[in-house]
């Protein structure tokens, strides 16, 4: 991935990015026409412009992503305003995305005919096509307040209306003694509300962060107790002298399942899915991170500003994915040109 940031005059800022990622099968791909391993590459490019009017900042951005079986185009605008001598900041934005899903041929797989609308008559030839579309309309807002020099609070809201094909064209569900392609509803409304607080303890140079996120979705059983998903989280960041820091994070996530999700269906029904992300489950995330600057090892100049980060995560999950361990190691080296 390549990222760039350029000043455009005294008040303008231009950003651009390009990325390419590849998925390569470790063995023969299931369903492949010639039973060979495959490689699929996705390309994405995008950019944006932000203009600073002083207390108000306006941004416009767009990005396009393409791969053999999926194209996506997104455009959005966002504005921020500082109030109360810059102690308060509020933001509001809107976005639109248009996606085109293809049934192939992709990654060596045979061509798939897609049923874009689960409610369409399956006996009609026009009910299945090579491509389906998905349109997403979104609005997002945020607000933050500096309470004092050590304490910041804030809140955010994100709402998205999805209209169109939302199934995974390659995923199946078990129905009786056979498997059928999954079929999701064509309408979905997703809502996420979050509040946070950050407090810096000067005496110990410790930062404590608390976050709570509530997620609602009309695919979920909205009449159930605690409907939706709840995600409280706490983070503690501790400075270790001038050249190192350590962080601890705990996040708890619980959600109810989609009203049409089943691990196995006794009989065929209009909507079906075996997507574990739509099932009811809970997750505990425990994370530790250590960051060290080059100065910790006696390095100077450019290498003194080098930063090494090691991160270890442990997931406790009661879904079929089970528990998991994730480890990351990062190296950042600054340079001048």
Task: Provide an overview of this structure.
With about 325 residues, this protein is mainly β. The protein has one helix and 17 strands. The strands form two sheets. It has a 15-stranded antiparallel sheet with strand order 1-2-3-4-5-6-7-8-11-12-13-14-15-16-17, with no helix packed on it. Strands 9-10 form a two-stranded antiparallel sheet. It is globular, with a radius of gyration of 24 Å. It starts with a strand and ends in a 5-residue tail after the last strand.
Keywords summarizing the entry:
59% strand; 337 residues; two-stranded antiparallel sheet; 1 helix; 15-stranded antiparallel sheet; mainly beta; 1% helix
Helix content: under 10%
**Topology as a string of helices (H) and strands (E):** EEEEEEEEEEEEEEEHEE
Distance between the termini: 20 Å
Count of helical segments? 1
- The pLDDT mean sits at 89
Rg: 24 Å
Identify low-pLDDT runs. none
**Overall outline:** globular
Q: How is the largest sheet built, in terms of strand order?
A: 1-2-3-4-5-6-7-8-11-12-13-14-15-16-17
**Major beta-sheet overview:** 15 strands, antiparallel
Specify the oligomeric state.
single chain
